[in-house]
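Record 1 of the preview.
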Amino acid sequence: MDETQALTGVAEAAIAMAGFSGVVVVFRRSGDPWLPEDRFRLAVLIVSSLTTAAFAFLPLVLWEIAGAERRVWQVSSASWAIFGIWFIAWGRSRRASLESEDPAIRDRVAPGMFNVVSYGVAPFFVGLSLVNVAFWGAFTPYLAALVWGLVASGIQFARILQSALR
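->
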């Protein structure tokens, strides 16, 4: 599989994941009212899936502009890292805001998984992207970051679905 096929596949999967958010909304509409943490999860699902699709298409555009393959992966990885830093900060801030509005969220949402993702996994992929910018300029680390975006979307979809089926 070449790089273009891999990126196109990631984009298709990300768009499908964004489509699943519509299923979630319809599924929840007939049930109980939305919990604040589920609204947050839905926002994460939509943002992570749509941005993953956009970042999968970014190198295809850059090939036309930058030309040099190493530069394409460096610029793409730098762009993804900047977004990743913002997304981590936004998620932490939003979570803190939700907890201050409704302290019972701490009882409904296990902080362990959030902390592993927010302080471990997501920063790892930001770091990997920054190393790719500085040293490698390669496709594989960029693809790994995009796959993480798909996994993050999938986790949110599963968590919302689990909440809806309680």
